[in-house]
Specification:
about 160 residues, alpha+beta, 6 strands
């Protein structure tokens, strides 16, 4: 059973706690969709000042396809190299955008989004998908968010069989 947690520590302590919670949620479960669903729900409950959190998964056509998420309905398919998600997936590196309106080729799925962070999920050199988080505030995500969310993605990837 999972209870709503009031994160009362420092940002660093809170991220460390949520990463431990995620590991506990994923422990022993091998289903990717179940694990990504729980991860997106946990992040939605944990992160403040966001309006969308979820995953896009690479498909056989080499496109990102909408996976488990929390938020308004979203774009279903994103080509590699297009928008923030497609750029992160193609480059296989985290992309943090202070103002999405200044990002060349930004794909606006939610008009309220102002900033975004996208972290690729890569296992054994193979792209699995991306974690995408949007905020209605400009410059919402900083280096601490990036480092701790990259750790969170590593937990997910390490639990993929």
């Amino acid at each position: 059973m999972f209870n709503v947690e009031m994160y009362k520590g420092s940002r660093l302590e809170n991220y460390e706690l949520v990463n431990k919670q995620l590991q506990a949620l994923l422990d022993g479960e091998e289903n990717l969709i179940a694990n990504l669903s729980n991860a997106s729900a946990l992040l939605n409950q944990f992160l403040d000042r966001i309006n969308w959190v979820g995953f896009y998964l690479i498909d056989s056509n080499n496109e990102l396809v909408l996976g488990p998420f929390q938020g308004l309905p979203a774009c279903v398919r994103i080509p590699l190299g297009k928008g923030v998600c497609g750029t992160s997936a193609q480059q296989r590196k985290t992309v943090r955008v202070e103002d999405v309106h200044l990002f060349p080729g930004h794909i606006a799925c939610d008009a309220a989004s102002q900033s975004e962070i996208v972290i690729p999920l890569v296992k054994n050199g193979e792209l699995i998908g991306v974690l995408d988080i949007d905020s209605p505030e400009k410059d919402r995500f900083d280096i601490l968010d990036q480092e701790k969310l990259e750790e969170l993605v590593a937990i997910i990837v390490n639990n993929i069989k």
